[in-house]
Amino acid sequence: MKKILHISKYHTNHSGGIENIANIINTKLSEKFNIKTIAFSSNKENGKHDFKTILCTPFITIMSQPISFKYIAEIIKQSGNHDIIYLHYPNILAIFALLFVKNKNIIIHWHSDVVNQSLLYYFVKWIEKRILEKAKIVILSTANYSKSSKALECVQSKVKVINYGIKDLTYNNKERKRSIKEKNDRRTILSIGRLVPYKGFSYLINAMKYLDKNKFELIIIGRGSLKKSLQKVINDNHLLNVKILSEIKDCEKNKLLNSSHIFCLPSITRAEAFGLALVEALSFGLPLVTFDMPSSGTNFINQDNLTGYTVKMKDSKDLAKKIEAIAFNKIKYERFSGNSRKRYLQFFTEPIFLAKMCKVFSTVSEIDKFK
Fold first, then answer.
1. DSSP H or E segment with residue 23
2. Among the listed ranges 19-23, 199-203, 306-310, which one has the minimum average pLDDT value?
3. Which of 4, 72, 68 is nearest to 36 (CA)?
4. What is the predicted pLDDT for the residue at 220?
5. E-strand stretches of 13-145
6. Angle formed by the axes of helices 316-327 and 330-347, to 10°?
7. Which of 13-22, 255-264, 292-301 is least confident?
8. Residues near 371 by beta carbon (within 8 Å), at least 6 away in sequence
């Protein structure tokens, strides 16, 4: 059984797309591979060390990067005892540690470029380049992102595209057909994500000013630094039909996905490399509305005029127009809904994702198979 050193940023008690993928790897592939995970502990965890997990408590966090000398030391120490090193990136401290590692079977799961941190990137760019040279395989979630990444221009021969996949969360997985109700019924728009600038929630909230308050409601699920400012926009514009829910359990989130009508993810930069929440929405057969970002994975997930609409960047009025165009057109709504469910089943299920990841781990030393 191959031994994998799994390097993540945070562990299971920290919410986020990367952490969700890391958790799937740990829980679903642990029977086929001997996986040991090194991660930073979150506020809910104390640093621990056992045969499966090493959690390192950071003494400071700088520009979203936790810092821990133990984290560096454990990566260097454990690397010699494992067949494969599997790293989730961005994680600057981890790639610094890999400079001192001689293991040749390094796999980088490239979730995103370092975006919106130009000063920090100036100092780490050479480390990033060196680790990419050492890596055997670089995994990306979509070809869109791979082709638009300047950092990956020189390692395209190492790139393998594996779409993220998630467990089917719907209550009826076999033949689930969404249908909108009577024309006068209120439509629920749902959005999920961290309340941070690149998610673009202010544009979605502003779009609600152009929609009839009696016909539409918006529910945003998320936590983050912008909650107060976003709530102020809601209050100042008297948008009583807009709610932000920050403390919500997964079962409640899934009920909202099941009962909502349209899913909107208004991300505005390539920091949104994929958008796992979009895949959750697809699995429930929700039509999607996103901003048009050809260099991001969101355009691969949401196919314009197939699973929903892509909208002119940062245009709240057009966003509202496209939402309304879906909401009250029964034929269009059901076509988008059916296509969403089909696209999930074709590209984004958990078994498809795990089968591809399993193949990479099993054959990483036979690199010619991926050329």
1. helix 17-28
2. 19-23
3. 4
4. 98
5. 34-40, 53-56, 60-62, 65-67, 84-89, 106-110, 137-140
6. 100
7. 13-22
8. 157
